[in-house]
User: Fold this.
Amino acid sequence: MLFNELMGSNGYNKDEYGESDDWLELYNDGNEVIDIAGMYLSTDPKLPREFRIPVTILNSTLIQPGGYLVLWFDEDPEQGALHIDLKLSAEGGEVFLYDKDGESLVDHLKFPQQNKAASWGKTTQEKDPWHYLKKPTPGAPNSDLAIKGYVKELSFSHTPGHYPESIKLAMKTDPGARIYYTVDGTRPDTAKSYIYSRPIAIDTTTVV
Assistant:
């Protein structure tokens, strides 16, 4: 059994309650049914027994051979056995799965900063199988539509609002990343938009 895909900043998929929560997908690569009830999940290597997956009589924790199971990291365990009382960090982090003894490590994944529009999943590429995936597929085989990477979300020196005097608006993301912007409310693109190089002087009502 292996970790197969996750979203730590989910803006794409919803659970049975209509909530866009963090999720982690498990894949059974063996030939026998696996029941994860009683196993432990953790986001802290110092706390192997951070959360115990509940034992239920509904068979909701079974994974068939070649099958997938999605766990929702929403801190809402009252919503069911597949709702984990933990959160995945949008800034990147680790997740661990331990066997029912709370000590034997079943799988471990270190994942990078997350993005609302892509999942972090396994592909068929052998040298470096983990990539950002353009099409999240919880509960189904992963797409091989990989993305090389994402930059951090853009940060601004000023919050939206009214300012009595002119301002210089600065924008920031990962070093070396190119920022495209417009000042007329249209969506930026690489063909017609401005390339950010220095703070933008604003002295009238402007939509950046």
